[in-house]
Amino acid sequence: MRISDLAAEAGVTVKAVRYYESQGLLKPRREANGYRTYEPDDVVVVREVKALLSLGLTAEQTYPFIECLRAGNERADVCPASLTAYRTRIAEVDQRISELTDLRARLTDLLSDAENWRMKQL
């Protein structure tokens, strides 16, 4: 299948497919005329990568999932390395939540202080 067919079937742009290829997530064959050709399994890979990227994983963090699929598993997230990648992303999200919670508390304190100061000025 051609790159445009893969992109259409997987619900991404041709540019996204090229990016996934540049990151080593796809390995198309090249025909004599230089055209890329993809296998039907690549549709599953592209859909999986798209879903994982939407969860905030980096392209590099998707490698264990893709390897899990290529190993013949029906799901990309049943291999130990995939589970580790999930755990890592959850820890990153927890850290970000903590940072945002602290930021919110500081902003709330500043707002309260500013409102109190303003009320004293009136």
Describe this structure in words.
By secondary structure, this protein is mainly α. It has one domain (3-121): Multidrug-efflux Transporter Regulator, Chain: A, Domain 2 (Orthogonal Bundle), CATH 1.10.1660.10. 66% of the residues lie in helices and 3% in strands. The protein has five helices and two strands, in the order H-H-E-E-H-H-H. The protein has helices at residues 3-10, 14-22, 41-54, 63-70, 80-121, and strands at 29-30, 36-37. A two-stranded antiparallel ribbon has the order 1-2. A hairpin with a 5-residue loop joins strand 1 (29-30) and strand 2. It is elongated and about 80 Å long. The mean pLDDT is 95. It holds the Pfam family MerR_1. Keywords: DNA-binding, Transcription, Transcription regulation. GO terms for molecular function: DNA binding; DNA-binding transcription factor activity.
Summarize the structure.
Keywords: DNA-binding, Transcription, Transcription regulation. The chain is mainly alpha-helical and 122 residues long.
